[in-house]
Request: fold
Amino acid sequence: MKKVLSIFVILFTVSIMLFAQDTEKSDALKFEVSTVDAGNAKIEFSFNDLTGVLRVTYTLKTFIFNLGDADAAIRDAVIKFAEEKGYFKYRVYPEEDDVRYFQETRTTRYKKFFILYDKNRLQ
Reply:
């Protein structure tokens, strides 16, 4: 009985330690969310300063979606966002682009993925 109790105490202690580490990691990897308007569309930024990961979601309701217009609006918004956060450069990953059409709400959602780097406060 003592062996079972001691094993239980050890497992309980290890699980508490692992849970504490997960909490610290989740705070560091938390994404900051902000939104800007771009004409008829809404652009949402999900950004993690620790990794430089920026997920951009362009949402357009009840208007005709034009990929070129969306890319231009996103590019301009990302440049402004990067400057505000103190970054000089960004890299876009076009293979991760995702366009979805929602017929019932007449909404188009366009997602893009960026990495911001070369931060001025590090120099």
